[in-house]
Design brief:
Length: about 450
């Protein structure tokens, strides 16, 4: 039985954390405020305060979008315990294991499919989402080099975010993204304008965007190795929803020029946008696809890269004779066992639930439209976004939402929710009310 932390322990832990622990996107000189999570269950986090009090709050972030089934999930707990009794890890070089094989089979069986496209049937298991994008880019570069036509350029759109490691940073938005500091040292890629907002492509704005993109692509077509996209929803680059037709257009341009198509479905896949994959909305199957985050339900870090047999054969026929990548923890049996159990929980009922969550988020966030500080309100599947006219006062909005029983972590000008799929209608209403009231309290 877990013993609650005593108040002196909480104070000591948080003092050490502030002095020595470097958190994401945080300054070591002026650390951002952190809260101590003592435990979690269902969709709620149990926060231990320095005064000894305990606050239970709904996690509207799904722990950065991965804990889609909530916390202390019996099926995932059982999968982890069962695998621990066998082995927690074994190297993947020259060895294999049952959970990794079962996971690869499950992913290939559930990968997006569409008429006229080759299936995704080769699986490379990686450590994290960012590493999976590294692998995807290396696949594209190696495939072209092996064919005797080395191509170096990645073609993408403004507003994207694909990870924090070096190569993925090069395909993140170079001007408004988080990695502008590194522009001088990153490979130079080609960025098309961000597509118009919304799912509707039948507009003059979209027609003009398409004209610009076709012209820009034509200038670089002979050197484009791959088109890289977060289909339909750009996540950390701004929670931007854009037309599936834009995805289909960019994929078509790639294939016409002999380039590959890479979909980053790390945030959008596994039901988050209302379909199993965002690619399903576009009737397009990429040559290479990355998935992660929800893959293990937030239990362990794991990602996967799926590709067509043609890509795998092209890479393997090159001078190296192999994909030049091999993480130490590749195919970790513990993570793969939990991922198999997580995928088992993502069925048709989950997709039906995320469809309903969109309507519930629409209703819950609708009052924000009446606030003068609000620029836009938008939803897609289990994603709800309130965009302000100004940058969010992050700490004050977090504190205001916590007082209302909800954990959110805004960024830039966005206060958003990506709740666990097991959230019910009352949970969604609470999340929406907390977001709207916190914005109104802080920004007026």
């Amino acid at each position: 039985m877990h013993q609650p932390l005593a108040t002196p322990q909480v104070t000591d832990l948080l003092d050490f954390d502030r002095a020595h622990v470097w958190h994401p996107y945080s300054s070591a000189l002026a650390p951002s405020t952190t809260r101590l999570v003592e435990s979690a269950n269902g969709i709620r986090l149990r926060l231990r305060e320095t005064d000894g009090t305990v606050r239970e709050v709904v996690d509207a972030m799904s722990s950065w979008w991965c804990a889609v089934h909530g916390y202390a999930v019996p099926q995932l707990d059982a999968a982890a315990r069962d695998q621990l009794e066998r082995m927690s890890h074994v190297m993947f070089g020259g060895l294999t294991n049952e959970p990794a094989i079962r996971l690869a089979r499950a992913l290939t069986e559930r990968a997006p499919r569409a008429d006229g496209y080759a299936p995704l049937e080769q699986v490379f298991l990686a450590d994290s989402g960012s590493v999976s994008v590294e692998v995807a880019l290396k696949l594209a570069w190696q495939a072209h080099a092996a064919a005797g036509r080395p191509r170096r350029t990645m073609f993408t759109i403004r507003g994207g975010y694909h990870g924090d490691t070096l190569a993925p940073m090069s395909v993140c938005d170079p001007l408004d993204g988080m990695h502008t500091l590194f522009r001088g040292v990153l490979p130079q890629q080609v960025f098309a304008p961000r597509p118009p907002a919304g799912l509707d492509a039948d507009t003059p704005t979209y027609a003009e965007w398409e004209r610009q993109v076709r012209a820009l692509y034509a200038q670089h077509a002979d050197d484009v190795a791959a088109v890289v996209l977060e289909p339909v929803l750009q996540g950390a680059g701004g929670m931007h929803i854009y037309p599936p037709q834009a995805v289909a257009l960019l994929a078509a341009l790639a294939r016409e020029s002999g380039a590959l198509v890479i979909f980053d479905e790390i945030a959008t896949g596994l039901g988050r946008t209302g379909t199993m994959w965002a690619a399903d909305r576009c009737a397009v199957v990429p040559d290479i696809m990355c998935t992660g985050k929800a893959l293990t339900g937030g239990y362990l870090t794991l990602a996967a890269v799926l590709c067509t047999r043609a890509v795998a054969e092209a890479v393997s026929s090159g001078s190296a004779g192999a994909l030049m990548h091999g993480p130490t923890f590749m195919g970790n049996p513990l993570a793969c066992a939990v991922a198999c159990a997580s995928l088992d929980l993502i069925g048709s009922h989950t997709l039906q639930r995320t469809e309903r969550m969109q309507a519930e988020l629409d209703e819950a966030l609708d009052p924000a439209r009446a606030l003068d500080c609000v620029r836009d309100v938008r939803t897609l599947g289990a994603v709800g976004v309130i965009q302000l006219h100004e940058p969010v006062d992050v700490e004050r909005v977090i504190a205001a939402a916590l007082r209302r029983g909800v954990w959110v972590r805004p960024f830039r000008d966005l206060v958003y929710a990506m709740p666990p799929f097991v959230s019910d209608a009352d949970d969604i209403a609470l999340i929406g009310r907390a977001m709207v009231e916190a914005i109104q309290e802080v920004h007026g």
